[in-house]
Amino acid sequence: MSQQAPSGAIDIFITLPSNDPSVSPPSNTDYTTILPQEITLNGTWVVALQSILYEPTSANEALYLYSSLVEPSVVGSQYVQLMQTIPGVSAIGPTIYQQAEPLIFREVRFTSISEIEMELRDGNGIAPTLTGNTIITLLFRRVN
Predict the structure, then answer these.
(1) Would you tell me how many other CB atoms lie within 10 Å of the CB of residue 52?
(2) φ and ψ at 76, to 5 degrees?
(3) Can you name the CATH fold of 7-142?
(4) Cis peptide bond upstream of 17, omega within 30
(5) Each residue's pLDDT tens digit in the chain (144 positions)?
């Protein structure tokens, strides 16, 4: 079943917890969330990382969030679907909550969305070791 985004909508927030039963495969760094209903976006939309909650097991310089939602762009010498660079943490410990500042919007590739693929990597392109649940909140914004 398809669900239309309201024609007057400005912002839509979608939260993607890695421990949701619809996530495949079970992972807190690379996962695909199957939405309960397909979302149809009329017009042109952009998406940004609004926040991320995760529990690192080691310090890291930065994490890189990739998503199938966004148009590929040139980063260095590669063409990738990078959504956001997430500042690193200096020590392991409790759960880290980071709000994206500033919000960096990327054009959404699809007008119909039934699943969302997310991938976290460190600076070496390796999935970081995280414990617990990762929760990513995305902000969709209609631009016309």
Answers:
(1) 22
(2) 65, -120
(3) Jelly Rolls (2.60.120)
(4) no
(5) 334 555 555 799 999 988 877 776 667 788 888 888 999 999 999 999 999 988 887 777 788 899 999 989 888 888 899 999 888 776 666 778 888 888 999 999 999 999 999 998 888 888 887 877 889 999 999 988
Question: Domain spans of the chain?
Answer: 7-142
Alpha helices in 25-65 (DSSP H): none
For the chain, state the CA radius of gyration.
15
pTM (predicted TM-score): 0.84
User: Which pair of tokens denotes residue 43?
Assistant: 């017009």
- The sign one gets for the Cα dihedral 117, 18, 56, 53 is positive
4: exposed, middle or buried (Cβ count in 10 Å: 0-12, 13-18, 19+): exposed
Residue recorded with tokens 């079970």: 26
Long-range (24+ apart) CB contacts under 8 A made by 99-102 are 99/50, 99/51, 100/48, 100/49, 100/50, 100/51, 100/52
β-strands 45-56, 106-107 pairing: antiparallel
